[in-house]
Design goal:
Helix content: 25-40%
Mean pLDDT: 93
Number of strands: 14
Strand order of the largest sheet: 11-12-10-13-7-6-14
Order of helices and strands: EEEHEHHEHEEEHEHEHEHEHEHE
Radius of gyration: 22 Å
Low-confidence stretches: none
Distance between the termini: 29 Å
Length: 326
């Protein structure tokens, strides 16, 4: 495996956090991973657009100092590793990175690099604003009614990657324990996956969604979940969200249930909750009733892609994976 030493641009400066705000300077260093497949083509075009936008916005007075780091197929060819530890170290040091699409084999092979990046760097919130831009073709008649920001929990749920393949000794061991000790009746041929969700992981995601709604003047936050079936994971996510709202935002958040009972709503964020499958209908039939959606990992993957399709496709709805540190 090749040794990697990343050299930052000499005329660039690190992006730093001060009181929760990013301070970029005149030549902020931004890391980039080209990505696999169409990634290099997308990156070449994106870089031109980004450089031109910054130049126009600041009259040539500011610019991005780009620094390439490696992950995916390009990294594997050059270093023998899909995600070198030096890449993670660089992101931790410089705080901001742009990533193209990375290869994830289906049904086997390496673990998802996208998931690994989120977990290793604790990028617990995938934030995706979705709205329509005039002139972009859309499969629906009124895409302009959708203007929503999705907060997807990024580190827990089934995407934690805790699973065992069908027919393996480890899978049979888990199944035998479940059957013998927990009174279940699971086929020994089953593949097994675990869906961990915690109060801490759920609440910090919902906290961020509510804070965003307050800062941006969004009137509603909706908790999307499948708690009617998965009561102790998805149902708990909804319960923890309501607990957090009551504990940390008692005077500025009102639940939909309390509002229906007569609680005042003026100058307050309305907290809703919707079952996941119903939510897919809602964003099609009543999109203008939703402004911020907070949801667990798998649901967030689905709903963000579905909303993106409404406004013209994934290319029209970029997202950011964000944690609490630069």
């Amino acid at each position: 495996m090749a040794d990697i030493a990343y050299t930052p641009p000499a005329d660039g400066n690190k992006v730093v956090l001060e009181n929760g705000r990013a301070i970029a300077g005149d030549r902020p260093i931004v890391l980039f991973i080209e990505g696999d497949g169409v990634g290099p083509d997308i990156w070449a075009a994106s870089k031109r657009v980004l450089d031109a936008a910054v130049n126009t916005a600041f009259g040539g007075g500011r610019a991005i100092a780009w620094m390439e780091i490696l992950a995916g197929e390009k990294s594997h060819k050059q270093t023998g590793e899909w995600l070198p530890p030096q890449t993670l170290d660089a992101i931790r040091e410089f705080g901001v990175a742009i990533k193209g699409p990375l290869t994830t084999p289906v049904g086997g092979g390496i673990r998802s690099l996208n998931v690994t990046l989120r977990q290793e760097l604790d990028l617990y919130a995938c934030i995706r604003p979705v709205r329509h831009f005039k002139g972009v073709p859309s499969p629906v008649s009124r895409p302009d009614l959708l203007d929503v920001v999705i907060f997807r929990e990024n580190t827990e749920d089934v995407y934690a990657g805790i699973e065992w393949a069908s027919g393996t000794d480890d899978a049979r061991k888990i199944i035998s324990f479940m059957n013998a000790e927990m009174g279940r009746s699971i086929s020994l041929a089953a593949g097994i996956g675990v869906k961990p969700m915690t109060p801490e992981g759920s609440k910090r995601l919902v906290r961020r969604a509510i804070q965003f709604a307050l800062e941006k003047g969004k009137p509603t936050v909706t908790i999307m979940h499948k708690g009617n079936i998965m009561k102790f994971t998805e149902g708990a996510f909804n319960k923890w969200a309501y607990e957090l709202a009551a504990d940390e935002f008692p005077d500025i958040v009102v639940t939909e249930e309390d509002a229906a009972a007569g609680a005042p709503t003026q100058n307050r964020v309305l907290l809703k909750n919707r079952i996941a499958d119903a939510m897919f209908q809602q964003v099609l039939l009543r999109p203008d009733e939703y402004h911020v959606i907070a949801t667990p990992n798998l649901n967030g993957d689905y709903i963000s892609d579905a909303c993106a399709a409404i406004v013209g496709g994934l290319g029209m709805a970029p997202g950011a994976n964000i944690g609490d540190a630069a």
